[in-house]
């Protein structure tokens, strides 16, 4: 039994990610005590029923008092208000982090409200499913996934290293980069794919009703994979697009240019252009399998599509 | 031991789908004998090494002689040439089918070359992975998947029923509809999703090299699911887009209109429009899970992402 990395962890917000942090930190003995707060009385009660923490508060200020590590796990649009609420109650020397999918706007929203005596080190675990809420917590969610930290250049190296150790203890691989760079990389790897998935599922849902029921029935032929992505939390993703506007619009511009080329090739019956692109994209897939970010095993899109409702693990 | 449904099955083309049919038909004792042909000597030799059939021919005409069921398993762009080659050698009363992802153009290409004494009943099993070639054959590929048949109105009901029984014996659920309707439904459930996936992966691969390596590294955050779709066989998909041009362009037009609305909402900071769409798409996902076309179990996109190279089943 080793000593916990942090005596007291405070989680502000206890949805899918917050609950997963609580479960993973508890199992690994990574923290001594877990304080949980959320504005929703129903969610707070549910977190307590699930036994995710040790103490529970409606007010974030109460939860963060005396905490050595505070992780804000709310939609990014709410992070500024949370920082304002907890700022005056933070312990000197505490590490304050978050899990938001965008970083520049979160830094802009939170930093002004945090006292200089705390270490503000923004973070983003690249993990999550399409489920939300405290019941969606998964103890293994961060296992072998990336967690990106975006410390300012002036950040205390010892504090950064300690937060890195925390995420490693939860099973994650950790990488540090600037907030700006994070937002650009995530715009193409995550935000644009989500936007496209939302869009195509929306297009399908607007179809005449005769076709719509068949879209559901025959969804396994490709569409289904998009619906899983497009089932992600609406509040979280609204905030992502509003807060990473420039990078998303930049990537969307490139996507549209490419789609125009592809559309023209189809219209003109230009098979060579299509074949060349489709060969190039196949190579990208091989690179991803080669670096261990996915497996080449066929799973037909899902682990076991014959069982309609597997138990969560 | 029941009698086989067909005495002799001829498979023209022995890629991912053809090989899977051979394996499934053999296991179920669905046919008495399997004849295989393909123009590629290397592929033919590999099919024989794998023991997929009983007899092997370089010339499709030799394979189809005396066959009771002929299934053409080639990219749809090649189906006309195959029909021309086998037409004069087909047995009277034989059923001729295919597995192409588009149906109107396949009917147009094949029908003129087939004698009136055979039953031409086009088909499309909605199954497949991103892998190709005879080694990618999977005995369970059609289990609980849909197979759509598009018989002409004049088709012999007994022949249609017999082909349905064949696919059911391979584990599939069978549905009949017109070729035109099939092409429209597949344009939105399969062809457009593939086109979009190819496009976004292409956009990412054109990025400056500094970002591109990170796109691979952090691909698990959404992008990865697209790369799997975009790794599908280039020849097959080139032919799909060239042969279902009208329906794909129609759906692409709707997709683009919707994407323009979404882009404007992001640019204007219009969170309500985003939130409304994201809520609507989540409901679609629930419908798909409710009708058993997918499971709600979290699998992080893949069965087990911690094992980089699982064995095929």
TrEMBL record, chains A, B:
The keyword Iron-sulfur does not apply. Residues 7-296 form the Prephenate/arogenate dehydrogenase domain. Its EC number is 1.3.1.12. GO terms for molecular function: NAD+ binding; prephenate dehydrogenase (NAD+) activity; prephenate dehydrogenase (NADP+) activity. Pathway: Amino-acid biosynthesis; L-tyrosine biosynthesis; (4-hydroxyphenyl)pyruvate from prephenate (NAD(+) route): step 1/1. Keywords: Amino-acid biosynthesis, Aromatic amino acid biosynthesis, NAD, Oxidoreductase, Tyrosine biosynthesis. Gene3D superfamilies: 6-phosphogluconate dehydrogenase C-terminal like domain, NAD(P)-binding Rossmann-like Domain. It catalyses: prephenate + NAD(+) = 3-(4-hydroxyphenyl)pyruvate + CO2 + NADH. It is an enzyme of class 1 (oxidoreductase). GO terms for biological process: tyrosine biosynthetic process. Pfam families: PDH_C, PDH_N. SUPFAM superfamilies: 6-phosphogluconate dehydrogenase C-terminal domain-like (SSF48179), NAD(P)-binding Rossmann-fold domains (SSF51735). Transmembrane segments: none annotated. The keyword Electron transport does not apply. Belongs to the prephenate/arogenate dehydrogenase family. This is prephenate dehydrogenase.
